């Protein structure tokens, strides 16, 4: 029998990256794997952003992680970045997903949808499928403004979608937009993201809204409407005094994580 924590992922960034970038005011000493263990999840997405990492070394360090996903960057200019993930799968069976982060974000000029066609994404998907991998993308509520026809034309080429609320939001916004997402991606695998820090405001987030999301997503998991939840991120797990939302999410997982589903 699977437990609830088996459905939880960490959106993993290089250790202490947000403090180094001046986004947070507290240092973090947690790696991807440390963050996963601290928050009680079982799976990891590796998302190096613009930091250089040795993908094979990092994957080898995660040999005990249940499932892994690697972000795919700049594949329009460098299609070999897709092949690199496919090649890693030959050595590391726990890699499951290649994911395109910030796919519809206008500020992501090096890797957003303007550089691709649905046909090109289908080619990448087939390459990943041949390696035994799935191809996923990131979608935000703010991306609805791109236009649903455009969003739908690309979504159909992906195996799964991870859905996020970038802006500070309310219970009503969460409920309404989750319903839109579930309908939009009804034929796809689905994960929902939960920010433990408000990057839109560069400020700590409200623990109450985090707990509301976790309670709601738990019920969606139990009803098989979503596959699971992604907690963001090891990079905001503080070295000293913990952010309130991080502590709340950890406590929630300690209380709920071993529930059978």
Based on the model shown, name its key terms.
single chain; 261 residues; alpha/beta; TIM Barrel; eight-stranded parallel beta barrel; 9 helices; 8 strands; 36% helix
What is shown here, in short?
With 261 residues, the protein is α/β, with parallel strands linked by helices.
Question: Your description of this structure?
Answer:
The protein has 261 residues and is of the alpha/beta class. The chain has one domain: Glycosidases (TIM Barrel), CATH 3.20.20.80. 36% of the residues lie in helices and 17% in strands. It contains nine helices and eight strands. It has an eight-stranded parallel barrel, surrounded by four helices. Helix 8 runs parallel beside helix 9 (244-256). It is globular and about 45 Å long. The mean pLDDT is 97.
């Amino acid at each position: 029998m699977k437990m609830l924590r088996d459905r939880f992922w960490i959106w993993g960034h290089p250790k202490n990256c947000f403090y180094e970038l001046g986004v947070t005011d507290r240092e973090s000493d947690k790696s991807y794997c440390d963050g996963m263990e601290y928050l009680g999840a079982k799976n990891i997405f590796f998302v190096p952003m613009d930091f250089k990492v040795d993908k094979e070394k990092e994957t080898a360090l995660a040999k005990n992680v249940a499932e892994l996903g690697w972000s795919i960057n700049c594949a329009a200019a460098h299609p070999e970045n897709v092949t690199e993930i496919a090649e890693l799968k030959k050595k590391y069976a726990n890699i499951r997903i290649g994911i395109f982060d910030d796919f519809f974000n206008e500020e992501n000029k090096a890797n957003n949808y303007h550089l691709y066609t649905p046909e090109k994404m289908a080619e990448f998907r087939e390459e990943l499928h041949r390696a035994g991998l799935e191809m996923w993308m990131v979608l935000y509520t703010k991306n609805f403004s791109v236009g649903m026809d455009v969003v739908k034309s690309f979504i159909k080429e992906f195996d799964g979608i991870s859905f996020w609320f970038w802006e500070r939001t309310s219970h009503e916004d969460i409920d309404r937009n989750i319903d839109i997402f579930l309908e939009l991606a009804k034929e796809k695998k689905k994960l929902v993201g939960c920010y433990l820090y408000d990057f839109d405001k560069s400020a700590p987030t409200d623990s109450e809204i985090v707990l509301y999301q976790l309670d709601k997503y738990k019920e969606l998991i139990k009803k098989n409407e979503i596959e699971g939840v992604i907690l963001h991120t090891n990079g905001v797990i503080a070295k000293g005094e913990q952010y309130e939302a991080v502590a709340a999410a950890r406590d929630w997982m300690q209380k709920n994580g071993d529930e059978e589903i």
